[in-house]
Amino acid sequence: MNNVDGRSPRRGRGNQPRASERSERRPRFAKPIAVVPCRGTGNRRRTSTDSLSSLAPSGPQRRLDAIPGRRSFHSLALGWLPKPFRGELPSKSESDRPLDLLRMISSLMLIGLLGLPIGAQENGPTDSTSSRQPSSPADGNSATGKEKLDFYRSRLREHRLFVEGRGDKPCELIEDPLIRWDNPISQNADGMMFLWTDRGRPVVVTNGFFNVSSRFWGRVFASLTDRPIEMKHGDQSFWKPQRSGSPLKPLDDAKPPADKPAARLVQMRNIAKEFQVICNWGGKGKSDWQMRLLPTPLYRYQALDDGIVDGALFGYIQSGPEAVLLVEARQTPTGLEWQYSTSRCTTYRIRFVRQDKAVADYPHIDEWVNTDSFYPLHVPLKDYPFGNPFEKAKPTPSK
Questions:
Q1: What is the CA radius of gyration of the chain?
Q2: Helix, strand, coil percentages in the chain from 3-state DSSP, rounded to 5
Q3: pTM of the full predicted structure?
Q4: How many CB atoms lie within 10 A of CB 64?
């Protein structure tokens, strides 16, 4: 087809329009275009809004998305967004399209989902605070879950924990459970782990559950400190270990703690991965079972009064926590260094292994007294108000 003057239109390679013809089809902007010099790439046109999508070569350069079957990375990345996100001003007819609204909502949802973990990782511990992420088959949002949580809290509040040398001020009970769990095989239901802290540092961890078959409330108390402690129920002594629970040990072969909290969190996770926890439940087979590490710390803290710049409590579980590990970045005369301590949360045998070397071995316990650093206790509870959570609901008969 010829033009008015009789000449045939000139085309580039691939029978495509020339650059001058293509430039006429570029989107129009509400504001005038300013020419901004860019070193090494020639002049580029840019709107005053500095939108990435408005950058376009000023010379007769060929765009990749003008070639049949080819699209540039920029157009692929921004093509699915509505035009306000691409720096283009939609016309009245396009602004009323419901598709643009759906794209805008989906993009905002995607940005929100991607942004949450980043912010959570950047936040480090603050003095006497923690970051906890309880996980459970029953998250406690239902009315029954809240009633169970209040049931356990009211009984734990009757106990007060004291650290020797700290005066008459009791330790703080963290009333939000570190983790909630169930074990249908062992018939242990409504498991919850709680923590007492002294000036921000973990001191005692307790793991409670209700055994459906034997109708008792099981609790275990484990000391996480090398200081003498005493727990009282009312005015009477309830638990007073005669020896320290978890002495700290240095990690000489570990890299020094990083300066930033987010980097230290990565280091502490990697240190926890170096430990393997093996539990032997006894019985005829006496099989060894390796526990699974929870990658997210049960509790993260900072206690500057004790020289603890950063610390994390990790759990090793089968269904509930069977053992815990403390990893701390402590201030020493030579600078910051990593230290750790281990503790059991079960009466079965527990072994900690690091780099093919056993670093802690806790034997099986058949009898226990309230003078040991680990104190399990079974309290008969015949009138458990929440029944058997493992019972399957009976189907409603059809009419």
A1: 32
A2: 20, 35, 45
A3: 0.65
A4: 11
What is the DSSP code string of 49-103? T--GGG-EESSSPPPGGGSTT---HHHHHHTTS-HHHHT----HHHHT-HHHHHH
Give CA–CA dist 254/266, Å, rounded: 13
d(CA 342, CA 346): 13
- Cα 298 vs. chain centroid, distance in angstroms? 9
Local confidence pLDDT in tens for the 399 residues of the chain: 555 455 555 544 555 555 555 444 444 444 444 444 444 444 444 434 343 334 344 444 444 344 444 444 444 444 544 444 444 444 445 445 556 666 666 666 655 544 433 333 345 665 444 444 444 444 444 557 888 899 889 999 999 999 998 888 999 999 999 999 998 888 899 999 999 999 999 999 999 999 988 888 889 999 999 999 999 998 899 999 988 888 899 998 899 999 999 999 999 999 999 999 999 987 666 688 999 999 999 999 999 999 999 999 999 998 899 999 999 999 999 899 999 999 999 999 999 999 999 999 999 998 889 999 999 998 888 778 887 777 764 444 444
Q: At what angle do helices 98-122 and 261-273 cross, to 10 degrees?
A: 70
C-alpha neighbours within 13 Å on the C-beta side of residue 260: 6
Contact 221, 194 (CB under 8 A): no
Q: How far apart are CA 317 and CA 74, in angstroms?
A: 46
> Which of 68, 57, 58 has the alpha carbon at shortest distance from 12?
68
The residues that bridge with 336 in the sheet, in sequence order, are 331
Cβ(379)–Cβ(210) below 8 Å: no
Coil, strand or helix at 21:
helix
Question: Which of 156, 157, 290, 278 minimizes the C-alpha distance to 220?
Answer: 156
State the DSSP string of 119-148.
HHHH----TT--------SS-S-SHHHHHH
Tell me if 208 sits within 8 A of 219, measured CB to CB: yes
